[in-house]
Every structure is written in C-alpha cells, then in structure tokens.
Amino acid sequence: MSSPTETGHAKTVATFQDLIAFCTSIGASYNPSNPALKIPALNAQLTAANTALQNVKAAKTALDNAINARDITFKPLRSLATRIVSAIAATEATAQTIADVNSMKNKIQGRRAKTVTKSAANLPAAGAEPVRTVSTAQLSFDKRVDNFAQLIATLTAEPKYLPNENELRLTTLSAMLTGMRARNSDVINASTAASNARIARDNVLYHNLTGLVDTARAAKVYIKSVFGARSPEYRQVRGLRFVNKPLR
Q1: In this predicted structure, what is the pLDDT of residue 186?
Q2: What is the distance between the alpha carbons of residues 186 and 210, in angstroms, rounded to a whole number?
Q3: DSSP secondary structure of 130-195
Q4: pLDDT averaged over 10-residue windows placed end to end, the chain, 248 residues
Q5: Taking the CB of residue 238, how many other CB atoms lie within 10 A of it?
Q6: Cβ atoms 171, 128 nearer than 8 A
Q7: What are the backbone angles phi and psi of residue 243, rounded to the nearest 5°?
Q8: DSSP 229
Q9: Contact call for residues 138 and 78 (beta carbons, < 8 A)
Q10: Residue among 15, 57, 2, 72 nearest 205 (CA)
C-alpha cells in the first residue's frame, strides 16, 4: 500500500500529464520561446518523472524483500542461543565459561545481564516523571551479529564444547553467522539504493527551476500571458495545482 507521501508524488506527475494534454489541445497557438516549455520537452520530463517514480517503487520492493529475508535468517537466533547455553551447561566446561555464554545469550535475546535493583534512592518522587534509563536490549541487527560472533568465539575457545547435534556445531553456527552478516549487508545496501532513488525522484520533480513543478508553473504562467487570465485556455489549467515536495 502506497504511503500518503508517495501518493502525493504520483498525483503531481498525473496532474502534469493533464497539463500537457491541455497545452497540446491549444495547438499552434501554444508556442513558448522557452525550449523547456515546448511540448516535446514537457513529454520528456513526464517520461523522466514516471521513470523516477517507478525506480522508487522498485527500490522499495527490493528493500522490503531484503528486510524479509533478514528477518527469516535472524528468527531462529533467540531459541538457538538458549539451546547453546543448555548444550555447554551439559559439558564439563568451567562455571565461568558457562556464565559467559549465558551472558551472550541474554544480550542476543535483549535481556539485562544483571538485574537492575530498585531502591528508594533511585525511585522517582511522588508526582515526578519517571527517570528513563538507557536500554540494554541491544536488539539492533548489527549488535545481534556482534553478540553472536562473540558467542561463537567463546564456544570456539572451549575444547569441551563438542555437540553431536549438527545445528549446534561450530561449523553450522559460523555458517549461520556468515548468512546473518550477508542478509544484514543486503538490507543496508538496499536501504542506500532506496534513499538514492528518492533523491533522484525529488530532483526530477522538485529541483529549483528545472524540476517538474517549476516547469508546470511556468507553463501555466505562459498560457496566462498569451491568452489572458479570463480566457478559456487559462481556465483549463488554472485549477491544476503543483506544490513543492510533500512533507514526509
């Protein structure tokens, strides 16, 4: 479903197409000296605008697909971390190693490594706004990758971690980490491409003087100057609104 902002961009381009139709219907009397206002130039600008809109849609679809693929790749991580803790706890690994692995699991799952103790000293006074502490969830994808990498490093350093289950083996975990990094990079790259597509669209539609909106306004002014403010030709285009870039 298109956002109101994207709908606004499409409406601007559709209105520009209406303007071209009216200018074309005027016939030979529509003869501006400005090359940018001539019918072929207007049609070329319309084509560029439609291409820019389509490029934004394609880039957004690619970004959505990349996000979905990353979500699928990361989804097993929370339950897998719990299984890893159980697996190493069943070995003869030291209590400290087990504690380190459990700490990594808590970070991956967005839990506090240590419980924050509430006391009278840090409770808000009656009627006061509660104090907001910095979240230790660390649930950003970059952080989850980093924490999972640290978990694997801890397991690798423990010679007693030799599970028989394939999904818990270090080779499998390392392959999963590689996939997580790749899917996270895919999202970053797709996000950059989507941002660039929006910038290109905005240049085509809203660039000062050369953008579609300013061209449309200039064409309306030309028609008004040639035929008059009360002419039927100008009345055809007077109600066509071309506004600056919609607010996000």
Answers
A1: 96
A2: 34
A3: PPPPPP----SHHHHHHHHHHHHHHHHT-TT---SSGGGSHHHHHHHHHHHHHHHHHHHHHHHHHH
A4: 71 97 97 97 98 98 96 95 97 95 92 51 47 45 94 96 96 98 95 96 95 97 97 96 75
A5: 14
A6: no
A7: -110, 165
A8: T
A9: no
A10: 15
Chain-centre distance of CA 22, in angstroms?
Answer: 38
Contact (Cβ atoms closer than 8 angstroms) between residue 16 and residue 9: no
CA–CA dist 226, 34 (Å, integer): 14
Q: Please give the structure tokens belonging to residue 117.
A: 């103790």
Distance CA(128)–CA(130), nearest Å, equals 6
- Single-letter amino acid code for the residue at 38: K
DSSP 231: S
| One-letter amino acid of 84 | I
What gap in Å lies between CA 69 and CA 52, rounded to an integer?
26
CA angle 97, 102, 105 (to 5 degrees): 130
Tell me how far apart the alpha carbons of residues 52 and 207 are, in angstroms, rounded to a whole number: 13
